[in-house]
Write a structure and sequence with these properties.
The protein is built from 7 helices and 2 strands, in the order αααβαααβα. It has about 170 residues and is mainly α. The protein starts with a helix and ends with a helix.
Length: about 170
């Protein structure tokens, strides 16, 4: 039920604010904007939703849920660490492709924005811990690193496909 509430909010935000704003541009730009919005909603679904109303603070839980040691889970051999690492990289590959399509930004700005997007996700997860959410998350520096790597790989794919398409069009 809580997911329906969040998706309803996404739908409302999209059609009341973003769609009227974006429909003034070309169909290609509208499609790319909509694709990015949908992608961000999907990422939020996997990383921070459901968000709950804060009821009380639970600071002891906070310190147990923050990892500032890069790749700690891999080093300690935790069971699903490799899987999570791969999923974090894959999750951000679309960002590295869609963001430069949308903004015409270079590699450095795309990578920095990928990192900032990841930090935003981790900060939001920190808020769920602070407010003793029923769905607490773990704030992890490894996620920021692997998400940024994923955004970088996405940008490399964007360059590759841009090059291939340019070659095709020049023939």
């Amino acid at each position: 039920m809580i997911y329906i509430l969040h998706y309803g909010l996404f739908f409302l935000i999209y059609f009341s604010y973003f769609f009227p704003l974006w429909k003034k541009s070309t169909l290609d730009k509208l499609t790319i904007h909509t694709l990015m919005f949908s992608y961000i909603c999907l990422v939020l679904t996997f990383t921070v939703i459901p968000l709950t109303v804060p009821f009380h603070y639970d600071y002891p839980n906070l310190w147990q849920s923050i990892n500032v040691i890069p790749f700690r889970d891999i080093i300690r051999g935790y069971g699903s660490a490799s899987r999570e690492l791969a999923l974090n990289i894959m999750m951000m590959i679309p960002f590295g492709i869609i963001f430069p399509l949308l903004t015409n930004q270079n590699a450095v700005k795309t990578i920095i924005t990928s990192c900032l997007f990841s930090i935003t996700i981790e900060t939001t997860q920190l808020m769920t811990i602070l407010f003793a959410s029923s769905h607490p998350r773990v704030v992890d520096i490894t996620d920021v690193i692997t998400n940024t790597i994923g955004g970088s790989i996405g940008y490399l794919l964007y360059l590759f496909f841009s090059y291939v398409l340019d070659k095709k069009q020049s023939k």
